[in-house]
Design brief:
By secondary structure, this protein is α+β, with helices and mostly antiparallel strands. The protein contains five helices and twelve strands.
Length: 254
């Protein structure tokens, strides 16, 4: 039903789907442009980290989403993308899906997928963003990822056979389209409650590490613009950036 709303290009290999779309955005023809790669040679994660993938084991793609003229700068967009991904996977039968602020999808604390949102320079044009998604479908045995205490894949969360990658992609794009329409008209507050229902660290003690500092407190959900709320000894604080993990001794970090 939504096929006409998307332009999908599927390539065997590219350096980075996000990098390709941000460097040379397709002309605005009224469709949502999607670039899928079977393999990325220089996939990027948040804060400049590499995104690791293995041929046939991951679904990696990027979506170019354009907002209406006059729309404010997007706030909480990575959280909306995470919610869409969670809903799509739940619709496919995945169990135990959790969302980790600001851009990870977990299953029982283990990383299943990551999201990278990059805003395009305005240059007199309406706001636009490239949303990159990397989803583990069926990882090789014995895989470990530096900096991650645990990783998992979609095949382990399903009670039935793993669907084809095209079916998984269609489910995700359908949810993205629907939630981005809501987001465009009502903003993140309209989706905040649904995101918080899946928040992995609600009311748990966490450490948030920035470039050269650390902040400790109790996760209190997210604000209406997507900022993380943290209860600290100094009161409720808003966090706009950082890496979140459970405090040592309070459970397995993610």
């Amino acid at each position: 039903m939504l096929a006409g709303d998307f332009s999908i290009i599927w390539v065997d290999e590219c350096a980075s789907t996000n990098g390709t779309l941000t460097a040379a955005p397709p002309a605005d023809d009224g469709r949502v442009h999607v670039l899928v790669a079977n393999r990325q040679t220089a996939g990027r994660g948040r804060r400049g980290r590499a995104w690791l993938s293995w041929p046939g084991s991951s679904l990696t793609f990027s979506v170019l989403w354009r907002f209406m003229p006059g729309a404010p700068a997007p706030a909480g967009l990575s959280l909306v993308a995470g919610l869409a991904l969670a809903r799509a996977l739940e619709g496919l039968g995945a169990q135990g899906i959790q969302l980790k602020w600001p851009n990870d999808v977990l299953v029982h604390g283990e990383k299943l997928a990551g999201i990278l949102v990059e805003l395009l320079p305005a240059r007199g044009r309406p706001p636009a963003a490239v949303i990159g998604i990397g989803l583990n479908l069926h990882l090789p045995t014995g895989i470990s990822v530096p900096g991650q205490s645990g990783v998992t894949d979609l095949s382990r969360t399903l009670e039935h056979e793993l669907p084809a990658a095209t079916i998984v992609l269609a489910a995700i794009l359908t949810e993205l389209h629907g939630l981005f329409e809501i987001y465009a008209s009502a903003g993140f507050p309209a989706l905040r409650g649904a995101w918080q229902q899946r928040h992995a660290f609600t009311d748990l003690p966490v450490c948030i590490r920035g470039e050269d500092s650390a902040l400790y407190g109790i996760c209190a959900g997210v604000d209406e613009d997507g900022a993380l709320l943290l209860r600290t000894e100094a009161g409720l604080q808003r966090v706009l950036a950082g890496d979140v993990s459970l405090r040592p001794g309070d459970g397995a970090g993610a």
